[in-house]
Amino acid sequence: MIPGTVGGRFRAAAGQTGRVQTPDQDAVVRRLPGAGALGLLVPPGAALVPADRLADPAWTARVLEARAPRRPVDRRVLATVWWYSASSVLVTPPLAGLVAGIPLSARLADLTVALLPGEVPIAALATAGAPYPADDLRASLAAVVAAVAEAGGVRERPLWAIATDSLANRLLDLGRAAGDPAASTDRARALAEAIGAPLPVPRYEDVGGARFTRRASCCLLYELPSGSMCTSCPRRPPGERRALLERAARRW
User: Considering the domain boundaries, does residue 194 fall inside one?
Assistant: First the structure.
């Protein structure tokens, strides 16, 4: 295998993993066109780290320091933006397995995360997992939310809201890849309820003939020096947000 494929061999620096074999994820990728864009394939040049590192507050604090821009930025913003990316990457393999009918693990011990330069989470690799990932998703999300909250000085509840938006977005993306977004997003409520509080129930809205996540959270990306407000940001006035979503729907 070559870098960029699921089972590729990657050079491992200190604290990183080496070769990772994930045949079940390979099978999921074959069932879902465009898997590379969904975070199921590791791009060349990415560093691989065990996912349980994300549950270590000290490791997370070092990541936040490395990601800090030259202009001072509130640490809670850095933590929230980091979790916005990391949560999406963490939930992708088990949700993809659920959609594809090939169970992939949601346990941190069974996951490997790929980071691009700048400590940017880009993909995750998973071994085979339980038929239904709710219990393992809850344990993994709880562990990493606690670490991010401690490292970033942010409350846990907003981080759980980001997690539910990541779950909703990924189910929607995976449903589009599988050709049936309605069937995929129909799983969201039951899965979130099985995971349980404090994870909010995901919500969707149909605008202009396309389905979008109705966000429960703000990623705070616009508070970074080079950031901007997301199209679906809940901080936008409702009319403005709907107009932007209608424009986006015309591109689908």
Answer: yes
Domain encompassing residue 94: 52-107+128-249
Distance of CA 24 to the CA centre of its chain: 19
Q: How many independent structural domains does the chain possess?
A: 1
Instruction: Identify whether 185 is part of a domain.
Output: yes
Query: Is 181 a member of any domain?
Result: yes
Q: Is residue 239 in a domain?
A: yes
Cα–Cα distance for residue pair 126/106, rounded to 1 Å: 7
How confident is the prediction along the chain (252 residues), in pLDDT tens digits per residue?
223 333 333 333 335 545 567 899 999 999 998 877 899 999 998 999 999 999 999 999 999 988 887 667 788 888 998 999 999 999 999 999 999 999 999 999 999 999 999 899 999 999 999 999 999 999 999 999 999 999 999 999 999 999 999 999 999 999 988 888 889 899 999 999 999 999 999 999 888 888 888 877 766 664 556 766 666 667 677 776 676 666 776 776
Q: What is the end-to-end Cα distance of the chain in Å, rounded?
A: 34
* Integer-rounded Cα radius of gyration of the chain: 17
| CA distance to 24, 86, 168, per residue, from 204 (Å) | 30, 22, 8
pTM: 0.86
